[in-house]
Amino acid sequence: MIELKKCRLAEIDFDDRSYPFSCGPVPERLRKSVAAAGILQPPWLVPGDRGLVIVSGRRRLAVIRELSRSTAAFSEISYLDVADRDPEELFLEVCWENAGIREFNPVESADLFLAAESRSLEGRERKRLFSALGIPDRPRFHQRCRAIAGFPALLREMIAAGRVDGETIELLAAWSTDDLVALVDLAIDFNLRRNKLREVAGRLDDLACRDRIPVSAVIAACRQAVADDPGGDQVSTLRRCLKERLYPHLTSAWKNFIARREGLSLPAAIRLEPPPDFEGGDYRLSFSFDGARQWREIVGKLNALTSEEIDELCRRP
Fold it and tell me: Is 47 helix (H, G, I), strand (E, B) or coil?
């Protein structure tokens, strides 16, 4: 029998995620609604080892918990005690109810996947549930879910917010907790978004594997390089530092090409670029002019280049 009861927020075990139906940012419209009118639909709770366990209504309770820090009006709430319900039926009912009104984010899907694995659900029901969660029935995606479950809290928040893609999650699954924490701090400090974070994480991993050092050590070195260049854009400096450390010969080749090009004293209107990464491909020459006089000056400068200068400029590293 479902019974309406009252409890203090302190009696709720917010850390127990036996029913992990919510993780990530709370919609602003829900926050405003709860602040204005309180909880209109009582959450479902059941007794647990360390207090009441949240079955449904976690986001509403999270808002109430936040509001209670500034006012005593929200220190007590009404809830539905669903302890008499079968746990498996309760899990599926709330899961399908949530799936019908919104999409789960990757962290919610991963947590629900693991929760479903630990329950005695029928095979057909499990497959139907995994399909609703958007999780293909392949080991790669199952491992991705297990990795998310073990990540530090701040990284899980980033994943829930859509700042980390699936391939990056698979890469980070092999990192230590210290390395993950260092990456999260870097992403927060440098405001690295999804694509930039994927690039940075990939190069950090390549450097750590090549040099056989922790990723956190590579991050520390890059942070120092950024600190030594206070006038530059932080993200651009970070990316350049990673590229220079990962491809030292390419960096040297690029610097040598720049020096040789500057030695030709070409007008600013002439743009000369090497092949990408100096690996095959063509050099690119372009120029702009504002009239016949400048046209003749540019053509004259190009015609004045000696064969030795051209050979030196085009010399491959």
Answer: strand
CB-based contacts of 279-283 (< 8 A; 24+ apart in sequence): 283/314
- Does any domain span residue 218? no
Q: What is the 3-state secondary structure (H, E, C) of 198-229?
A: HHHHHHHHHHHHHHCCCHHHHHHHHHHHHHCC
Total structural domains within the chain? 2
- Which pLDDT tens digit goes with each residue over 58-113? 888 888 888 887 766 677 889 999 999 988 888 888 888 888 878 888 998 999 88
CA 169 to CA 149: how far, in whole Å? 11
Q: Which of the listed residues 117, 140, 173 is the one where a domain comes to its end? A: 173
H or E element, residue 81? strand 76-81
pTM over 0.90: no
- Contact predicate 94/56, CB 8 Å: yes
26 neighbors 59 (Cβ within 8 angstroms): yes
